[in-house]
Write a structure and sequence with these properties.
- The chain is of the alpha/beta class.
- 38% of the residues lie in helices and 14% in strands.
- It has 14 helices and twelve strands.
- A six-stranded parallel sheet has the order 3-2-1-4-5-6, with helices on both faces.
- Helix 8 packs across helix 9.
- The longest helix is centred in the first third of the chain and has 18 residues.
- The mean pLDDT is 95.
C-alpha cells in the first residue's frame, strides 16, 4: 500500500479526464468501473472531447459526461472563452474531491489548479516542468522499458493512490443503449442476419497507414464466403474510408452486406455485439468489438499490439515476422503512408486465424 493513499471514503465526487481519440477513451472505461467498485457511493464524472462522448455515455459507473468541443479551436477568441467559461462553471459546481487526468494534455494541470480538488493524480511528465509537477498531489509513473497495455497504464493512476483493481474489474465497458439495439435488430431482420450468424469486417482506420490493402481484404472476404460465412462491412462516414470499402467490394466476387457510413457509434457497437467474429485493423471499432465481447482478429503494422491489442476477449493478433523494425510508430515506412509490415501480411494467415476463432465455442 502506498503511504500517501487516498481515502475513497472521504471522496464524494471525482472527475476523470481523458482527452484523446475514440479508442483511447474506451480503453479508459475500466477506470470508472474500478473506482465505483471500490467506492460505491462515489459520484464519478468524465471529461472527454465531444466527438468521443458516446464511448462513455450510459456507462453505469458515470454520473455525468462533460465535453470539450473539438471545434472550439476554430471559433473566435470571445466565443472560445465563453465555451470554456461555461465548462468551468459546470465543473466547479460539482465540487470534486478527486481529479484523475489520464493524459499529458496541459488542460489537466489547469483544471487541478482551477478546481482545487483535495487530491489530484496525473502521469509523471518530466518535460512538462515545474507547473505540471506542482499542480498535482500524486504523479504516476509511465512504463520506461516495458511495453504495457494502455488499459493497465490507465489503471496505474488508481494504483498510485492506493486503489488496486481486481482482475474481474478491468473489462472494457460500452453500452449501446436500447435505441441503438432496436435499430440494429430491425436492420438484421430486414437483411436476414441471424444472431451470431455473420462476420463483422471493418477494414478501415482514420489512419490509412494502418489499413490492409483492398485486394487482400477482398480475397479474405471471398475465402470466408466460400467457407459459408456472411460478411458485413462497415466504415466511418468519411470519404477515405468509404473509398477503401468501394475498392474492396469492386475486387470481391462474393456478396457482402455493406453498412459502411450508415451507423452511429452506438449502432456499430450493437451490430458487432451480435456478430460471431470481428476482423479489422488497429482501430476504435476493434476495441469496440472487444468491449462487446466479440472474438477479434486484429491486424497490426506500425502500432504495438502489446499496448493496443484486443483487451479481455478471445483474439488472434496478426503481425509480420519479417520486419524487425516494427512497431515503429511511423505513419508508413519512412513516413510514406504505406506500412509494408502490414500490407504484406498474407491472406492465408488472417483466414486461418478467423477459422480458428470461428471454430471455438464462444464463452
Amino acid at each position: 500500500m502506498v503511504p500517501d493513499a487516498v481515502d475513497l471514503g472521504a471522496v464524494r465526487r471525482a472527475l476523470v479526464v481523458k482527452l484523446r481519440h475514440h479508442g483511447d477513451v474506451l480503453l479508459a472505461s475500466p477506470v470508472f468501473s474500478v473506482l465505483k467498485a471500490h467506492a460505491p457511493r462515489l459520484e464519478i464524472d468524465a471529461l472527454v472531447y465531444d466527438d468521443t462522448r458516446e464511448m462513455l455515455a450510459l456507462h453505469p459507473a458515470i454520473t455525468t459526461v462533460h465535453t470539450v468541443g473539438r471545434a472550439w479551436r476554430a471559433v473566435s477568441l470571445p466565443a472560445r472563452l465563453a465555451h470554456e467559461a461555461r465548462l468551468l462553471r459546470a465543473l466547479r459546481a460539482r465540487r470534486y474531491d478527486l481529479l484523475v487526468t489520464l493524459t499529458e494534455n496541459p488542460r489537466g494541470a489547469w483544471l487541478a489548479r482551477l478546481l482545487a480538488p483535495r487530491w489530484s493524480v496525473a502521469p509523471e511528465q518530466p518535460r512538462r516542468g515545474r507547473l505540471w509537477r506542482r499542480s498535482f498531489t500524486h504523479l504516476y509513473r509511465l512504463p520506461r522499458n516495458a511495453r504495457r497495455h494502455v488499459v493497465e497504464v490507465n489503471l496505474d493512476a488508481l494504483r498510485r493512490i492506493g486503489v488496486y483493481p481486481d482482475e474481474d474489474e478491468r473489462a472494457l465497458v460500452l453500452v449501446p443503449g436500447g435505441e441503438a439495439e432496436a435499430e440494429i435488430r430491425n436492420r438484421m431482420a430486414a437483411l436476414g442476419l441471424a444472431e451470431q450468424g455473420f462476420v463483422h469486417l471493418h477494414p478501415a482506420s482514420r489512419w490509412r497507414f494502418k489499413c490492409w490493402p483492398a485486394d487482400r481484404t477482398a480475397a479474405l472476404i471471398d475465402r470466408l464466403a466460400a467457407a459459408g460465412e456472411r460478411v458485413v462491412l462497415t466504415a466511418a462516414p468519411s470519404e477515405p474510408e468509404l473509398e477503401l470499402v468501394r475498392a474492396i467490394r469492386a475486387a470481391c466476387r462474393a456478396d457482402t452486406v455493406d453498412l459502411s457510413g450508415q451507423l452511429t457509434l452506438k449502432q456499430l457497437a450493437a451490430l458487432t455485439g451480435h456478430a460471431k467474429l470481428f476482423v479489422g485493423v488497429d482501430s476504435a471499432p476493434m476495441h469496440i468489438a472487444a468491449a462487446m465481447g466479440t472474438p477479434v482478429v486484429a491486424l497490426f503494422g506500425p502500432s504495438g499490439e502489446l499496448e493496443w491489442g484486443p483487451w479481455g476477449v478471445a483474439s488472434r493478433v496478426i503481425v509480420s515476422d519479417a520486419h524487425p523494425c516494427r512497431p515503429c510508430g511511423n505513419d508508413g515506412c519512412g513516413g510514406g503512408k504505406v506500412s509494408e509490415c502490414l500490407t504484406t501480411l498474407p491472406v492465408d494467415r488472417v483466414f486461418a486465424a478467423a477459422r480458428e476463432l470461428l471454430a471455438a465455442p464462444r464463452g
